[in-house]
Amino acid sequence: MMLKTDSTRRSFSRRSRVAGFAAALLLAVAAFPAAQLLPAQEPPGRLLGRVLDHSNGKPLAGARVSVKDTELNAISDNAGAFVLENVPAGLQSVEVELIGYGTRTVPVRVLSRETMEAELRLSTKPIALPPIEVTVRSGRLESIGFYSRRDEFGRQGRFMDRSYIESRNPQLLTDLLYNQPGIKVDYGGAGVRRVFVTRNQGCTPMFYIDGISGDNTNFDVIRPETMEGMEIYIGGMIPIQYKSRTDCGVILVWTRRGSRR
């Protein structure tokens, strides 16, 4: 007969406890079917926009913008602007309320890791308002300051993002410059279109591609399908980093990949 020593008994006892814990764990897992396991949540998105008066388009300050079934809310500033961070991805109900105006609730589909833009209009009368349009901000344009310059210069500059450019379906970059106030597009030699600013005795604006000075005698060197955005400044209202070169005007083109291809 083999006698069990104290160390043998302790080892057997530890093995028994481990085996018992493993069996209990298996039973606990079996009690929760796979269908009941919660799916991983997508990272949130970001919603920003402006609250405007429906009748005259004026910005409305002090409006409360909130996401239903969450604690997310923001108050619009003097420009009607608001920002909601960490909005859960998916279809959300956004509510806008302001004293003197009817409360409005609109559906907004928030994309994970994306910044969404929207204009929310309120009316003092109980009328049917058109659905809002939500656009996705370009990460590329956001990183180079396109949107912050748009907010700063407003109507003193003109800003075209990719969705606008695609809606125009241009064959050449200069197709986007036709009918732009203060700009004239004319034909030069060898079929090249020349761009002039009508004030300042018909001077030629500077041309920048991804922040690098380009050839302002041939704007059509850039194909429209490669463009992520374009900024146009005429006269003295020019961003400080480009103003030292000219007072005529500046046209900034941003490509999709940050290259001149």
Shape descriptor reads elongated
- What pattern of helices and strands is seen along the backbone? HEEEEEEEEHHEHEEEEEHE
How many helices does DSSP assign?
5
**Order of strands across the widest beta sheet?**
9-14-15-12-13
Rg calc: 30 Å
CATH 4th-level superfamily of the largest domain = TonB-dependent receptor, plug domain
Instruction: Give average pLDDT, whole number.
Output: 84
How many strands?
Answer: 15
Class per helix and strand makeup: alpha+beta
Question: How many separate domains?
Answer: 2
| Separation of the first and last Cα atoms | 87 Å
Reported for the largest beta sheet, the result is: 5 strands, mixed
Which regions contain 5 or more consecutive residues with pLDDT less than 50? none
Proportion in helices: 10-25%
Enter the CATH topology name of the largest domain. Ferric Hydroxamate Uptake Protein, Chain A, domain 1
CATH architecture of the largest domain: Beta Complex
CATH class of the largest domain: Mainly Beta
Residues in β-strands, percent: 25-35%
